[in-house]
Request: fold
Amino acid sequence: MVLRTSAVLALAAATASAFAPATQTFVRTPTSVDAFAGGMVGGEGPEPMPFTTAESSANFDPAGFAERAPEWLPWFREAELKHGRAAMLATVGMVVPEFIRIPGEQFSFENIPYVIEAHDKLPDSMIQIFGWISYIEAISIPALANMNEFDRRPGDFSFDPLGLYPESEEGQRKMQLAELKNGRLAMIAIGGMVAGHAVTGNHFPYFI
Reply:
């Protein structure tokens, strides 16, 4: 597992803006309140939605969460972004160690021929990973506590060391939507990768 984390850390800086846009006040206007999901990005569509009664993905909310629990929408989006970001890192971490490993016999191809085996073969590394996850979760509590006051956009931790987050509102919404869609795709992809290895027992791309 540490193989995934270490390989991804080198790539994380290049995608820093995906982890949080620059600090800005998030105020809900009457227009955004009346809009679908409070005006947050993600409902634009118009991707087709097969096997559903909807014609496209525009304002796709079959369970009706946006109408039944509008006060929870910021928390729903926060959770979606967090899982999407973790999934984007996980998909990279499943592929990169197939080709390159960090120094150390315990991380070698001979000791861990299949990346997914790192979870069970590196218990000490797993403890470190869970420790860092717990630390990050703990220091993010104050930011989460302010979300219901609407002075913080869901997912915004003011972390943009490369200054990639656009200044214009149009550019910001475009980047937010790109992150959201890539995160959604990654959540499906990491599930497919794990299932693919479980079924085939092969290396990436897990073909039979």
